[in-house]
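Researcher: Structure prediction, please.
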Amino acid sequence: MNLECFVLLLFATYAAATTLNLQTVSCRETPVVQKEQEGIIRSPLFILPQQWWNCSWIIVVARNEVLNLSFQTFDLPCNTSLLVIQSKEQKNTYKLCGNKYQRFSILPSSNVTITFHGKVGEGRGFQINYSKGDHLK
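Model: Predicted structure follows.
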């Protein structure tokens, strides 16, 4: 493969991945608000190695509604990354790192904030599928 083809392929891959990732990654000053009944939250792309990130999402949850979280991917080295899941009214805070999480449910009485602090390029990152409902899964 010549250099021009390689650069074009790399750019196309980056553009497609960036478009996909912008829907579920928020590394801006304000968090992304997730109002949908189901959704996916992902860590930033790993194409920018050694990049530090602070990303936040707010999942809007109605009173008495259960939030089910299922980790499709979870690999955050504890020495460089941390995922914080917090329900303000109940003052529940979960600080997660490592690679052992699969699924859990929260019965918040308000919205839930998920924040990722970490260094991309170490570990595989995370993908969380969430769903809201009236019962635990």
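Model: The CA atoms of residues 63 and 117 lie 28 Å apart.
Researcher: Thanks, that helps.
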